[in-house]
Amino acid sequence: MTARVFVTALLGLLLATAIPVAARADTVLAICTSGGCQCSLSPLSAQEIAEVVGEPSISETPVDRAVATLVYEPDAGIMSWVDAPRRDIYASFGGDGDCPVEVFAAPDAMVPQDGTWQWRTLAEATSGCPADLGGMLAASQVAFMSRRVEWDGAFHPDRLAEGLPQPDVPGMSSYEWREAGPYRWLSDNVQNRECSDGACTEIALWLTMTLVAPDRISGLLSLRSAIDAPKAAMRAGFGLADCRVRVRFDFMRTGP
Question: What pLDDT, in 10s, does the model give residues 206-229?
Fold first, then answer.
């Protein structure tokens, strides 16, 4: 199996098993590279899939989402709705025949280990932000926030809530978690939009955490800050029009 095929299969498995299919199966996803596609039934919405893979914008709007396919091209970084039959989509990437829609089984039972857990920043990415923000993030790429956790036999991010970066913005609530799949939790309630004197500001914060092993939690923090106001081009030049920040992190069990 080539590295590309392995990564494509792994990405498909992640998106297909994000929450139980019986609970909310609403997106047919095709992950396509040169040579064909992998098609799967994802219980995530299109926007949630875009957040998971780091492509927040989706081009095109399908006529009927019940029959359309969400096509993701990881090599090109493109995600779009396509109304064509999946056989035609498959053929356009060099595949032969149909693209069977796979449904993956739920993962085995897993319980996080009690003990000391520590946050570790893995990577940061910024887009459309002030020039010095990337340097500030890179300088802060160190392990921090160590705490002892008693899980009581089940994974829930509230056990780590006291040490998480807090949305310290007036009018914005703290994290509210909803289960987005086996061992995966999502907080997307931290959003605020205010307008005054012809200018609007918008802030949105997504935070996901997934238990990937009894001693490891994988997470993604995604922040968007936008200002819609006069002199938009000037604001964009200073990184004030539409700033997006993504931070990938782990929580690792480091001891008892």
Answer: 888 889 899 999 888 888 877 776
Number of Cβ within 10 Å of residue 238's Cβ equals 10
| 177 strand-pairing partners | none
Portion of the chain with pLDDT greater than 90, in percent:
16
Give 2-17 pLDDT, tens digit per residue: 434 433 443 444 444 3
CB-based contact 46:81 (threshold 8 Å): yes
> Residue 7: enclosing H or E segment and its boundaries?
helix 3-16
Q: Is 9 left (phi over 0), alpha (psi -120 to 50) or beta?
A: alpha
Q: Within 10 Å of residue 184's Cβ, how many Cβ atoms?
A: 20
CA 233/CA 229 separation, integer angstroms: 10
Cα distances (Å, whole numbers) of residue 254 to 46, 140, 147, 172: 36, 20, 10, 33
Structure token pair of residue 202? 């918008």
Domain ranges of the chain: 3-102, 115-255
Place of tokens 């893995």: 122
Is residue 68 a contact partner of residue 115, using CB atoms and an 8 Å limit?
no
Q: How far apart are CA 203 and CA 170, in angstroms?
A: 11
Q: What is the number of alpha carbons within 13 Å of residue 140 lying toward its C-beta?
A: 12
How many angstroms separate the CA atoms of 250 and 116, rounded?
Answer: 13
pTM of the model: 0.60
Mean pLDDT of the chain: 74
